DNA sequence: TGATTAGTATATCAATATGATATATTTAGG
DNA sequence: CCTAAATATATCATATTGATATACTAATCA
């Protein structure tokens, strides 16, 4: 599933502009999938060419013109077809963990600080999610919010209990380097 | 931190060819960071140009020539400098979760099957990790293996306990569509 | 009042990365 | 004997990011 397909998915929830689709990615899909304007606008153009969405232009007086996109019947069909496929593997990249791989080359204080910041960041994410999740969520929304909370909390707990392993390697590494 | 930097990091652990660096990504960094030949070979060329690694060619009789890369002093310095920076945010993309967002559009049987497969996949990852982690690990290696196990297990537990939420939306969505 | 920041809305572009493919040979397994 | 996996290089179209440009409004703040 590429960003083009996911734009189509977002449009199943209602008409939207490119700008609004970007906001949806940030608000509802922050946990799951990221997309920048550089991929959203070209996607929308291509989907229009392919007849999977239609576009009407709304000129506003005190704003730039809006292009409002609507999914077509063909678009709905194409989306369902793609989404029924076996999903590809997750793609995950963590500079934080990559850095920790080299804990033995870094000062213990740097490692400690990075872990502190990571824990603070995960806590922020959890509390942001409490705000971001709707008050009367659908079952799926409830599932997604709980998923994020659970995974982030598991990470926090693990970091607290096991950070000493990294901090030990950072200290040992330094000593070995002397 | 980009792939170029991480190649440098891998070379701090010893000389290697592009092929061996790719294997290191697969074996030691599978959890954390991915890289394909299409990014590794160009990285190595650029690092050589910049004088951060040196390269000696070893012609083998019954194999393609090897290009063995060694990190230089300048390379070690450049790596440490980059790795001391505040790590950028994780990048995560999950087609699995993106699909579940649209559970209400899909047959409940499809959703159930996807969840079953996901659980099986995470279990496979956990057991692969038991094999992949060295017998006498360093503290950092122990930390990384434990990290993966913990996060995957948290996901499995969450899925088992909350899959009914998605399965409910899938059933309701279908009914609403009729 | 005046200045600065955030919000609405479009779009492009260089740089980066993926995933597939090509080439060529050896070794291991069934 | 044949096939698949392993060793080793490399390229390329396509996808994606992150930054930047443009242009106007609304809100905040000193």
Principal-axis shape of chain A equals: elongated
Q: What's the β-strand tally of chain A?
A: 3
Note the main sheet of chain A: 2 strands, antiparallel
Biggest protein-protein interface? A-B, 57 and 57 residues
Structural class of chain A: mainly alpha
Q: What is the multimeric organization of the chains shown?
A: homodimer
Low-confidence stretches of chain A: none
Q: Helix count of chain A, per DSSP?
A: 7
Q: Order of strands side by side in the largest beta sheet of chain A? A: 1-2
- How far apart lie the N and C ends of chain A? 50 Å
The percent range for strand residues of chain A is 5-15%
Residue-averaged pLDDT of chain A, rounded? 91
How do the helices and strands follow one another from N- to C-terminus of chain A? Answer: HHHEEHEHHH
What is the share of helical residues of chain A?
55-70%
Number of domains of chain A: 2
Instruction: Work out the radius of gyration of chain A.
Output: 22 Å
């Amino acid at each position: 599933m590429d960003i083009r397909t996911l734009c189509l998915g977002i449009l199943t929830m209602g008409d939207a502009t490119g700008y609004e689709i970007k906001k949806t990615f940030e608000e509802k899909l922050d946990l799951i999938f990221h997309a920048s304007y550089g991929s959203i606008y070209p996607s929308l153009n291509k989907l229009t060419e392919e007849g999977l969405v239609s576009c009407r232009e709304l000129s506003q007086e005190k704003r730039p013109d809006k292009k409002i996109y609507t999914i077509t019947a063909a678009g709905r069909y194409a989306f369902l077809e793609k989404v029924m496929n076996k999903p590809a593997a997750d793609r995950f990249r963590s500079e934080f963990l990559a850095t920790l791989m080299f804990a033995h080359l870094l000062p213990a204080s740097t490692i400690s600080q990075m872990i502190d910041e990571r824990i603070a960041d995960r806590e922020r994410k959890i509390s942001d999610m409490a705000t971001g999740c709707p008050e009367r969520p659908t079952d799926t929304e409830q599932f997604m919010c709980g998923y994020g909370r659970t995974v982030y909390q598991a990470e926090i707990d693990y970091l607290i209990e096991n950070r000493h392993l990294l901090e030990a390697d950072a200290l040992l590494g330094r000593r070995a380097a002397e």
